């Protein structure tokens, strides 16, 4: 009897164990057998992780500035034109394109901080110190220099002007030269000279015809046809680079090299005129 019960007990134990095993959740297979056997927590393969390609880093795209186009005078009618700084018998008169917005608002020439006019005036020798824009009115008395523009009305930049009004400014410059009779006009920018040339010759100068510096005597400005005893032969023309911060076709050193001969000439002319005169002396 006991053997019968013993046999049945063993059989029941086996059935219990089988049932228990069947109810247990199966272990997840692992690619690392030794770790699974030791009961260790499964770790990701570091080699597999590092072999994944790095996510691409996208840089924010720079917004391109919209190029300026012609703006009618009404757009900036709230701004006043810049007053010319002129006097009789100056050594030179600088001719700019037109006043920018900052210049018109402040009422002083080349007032925008990015404009290199006052820096180049000093480094070339036209002035013996670097002036501020609000000292522009001192140019005639201190250095026998003056300032005007080919177009009077202010704009953000030269692209807001038309070619026609640039060319139309040429005869106005001629008349200013006849009235004030400077020795020279310094054209501050290639585009200004092209407008004057276009007015005179009906076309832009060719590459062979254009050059920086002194122009041929036949291009003198303000020449009086009927030359009498005190006849005016016109102002000699020196073409130099634009000083605008937007004009980046030439490096700063290249601009200085073009300006330098004009600065040297200005110094020589002041010495010849004994300017500024010594105290008690009368200027020539």
From TrEMBL:
GO terms for molecular function: pyrimidine-specific mismatch base pair DNA N-glycosylase activity; uracil DNA N-glycosylase activity. The lineage of its organism: Eukaryota, Fungi, Dikarya, Ascomycota, Pezizomycotina. One of its GO terms (biological process) is base-excision repair, AP site formation. Coiled coil: none annotated. InterPro entries: MUG/TDG, Uracil-DNA_glycosylase-like, Uracil-DNA_glycosylase-like_sf. This is DNA glycosylase. SUPFAM superfamilies: Uracil-DNA glycosylase-like. Residues 88-260 form the Uracil-DNA glycosylase-like domain. Residues 1-77 are annotated as: Disordered. It comes from the Eukaryota.
């Amino acid at each position: 009897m006991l053997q019968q019960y013993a046999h049945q007990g063993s059989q029941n134990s086996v059935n219990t164990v089988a049932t228990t095993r069947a109810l247990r959740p199966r272990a997840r297979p692992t690619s690392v057998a030794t770790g699974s056997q030791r009961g260790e927590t499964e770790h990701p393969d570091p080699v597999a992780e590092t072999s994944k390609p790095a996510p691409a880093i996208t840089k924010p795209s720079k917004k391109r500035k919209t190029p300026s186009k012609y703006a009618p005078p009404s757009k900036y009618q709230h701004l006043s034109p810049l007053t010319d700084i002129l006097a009789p018998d100056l050594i030179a008169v600088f001719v700019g394109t037109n006043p920018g917005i900052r210049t018109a608002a402040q009422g002083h020439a080349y007032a925008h901080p990015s404009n290199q006019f006052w820096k180049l005036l000093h480094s070339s020798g036209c002035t013996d110190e670097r002036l501020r824009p609000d000292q522009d009115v001192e140019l005639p008395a201190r250095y026998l220099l003056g300032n005007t523009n080919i177009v009077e009305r202010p704009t953000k930049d030269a692209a807001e002007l038309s070619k026609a009004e640039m060319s139309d400014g040429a005869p106005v410059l001629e008349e200013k030269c006849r009235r004030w009779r400077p020795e020279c006009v310094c054209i501050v920018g290639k585009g200004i000279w092209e407008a004057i040339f276009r007015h005179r010759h009906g076309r832009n100068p060719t590459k062979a015809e254009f050059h920086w510096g002194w122009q041929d005597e036949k291009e003198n400005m303000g020449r009086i046809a009927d030359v009498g005893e005190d006849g005016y032969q016109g102002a000699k023309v020196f073409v130099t680079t634009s000083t605008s911060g937007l004009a980046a076709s030439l490096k700063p050193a290249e601009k200085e090299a073009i300006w330098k001969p004009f600065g040297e000439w200005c110094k020589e002319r002041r010495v010849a005129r004994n300017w500024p005169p010594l105290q008690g002396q009368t200027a020539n």
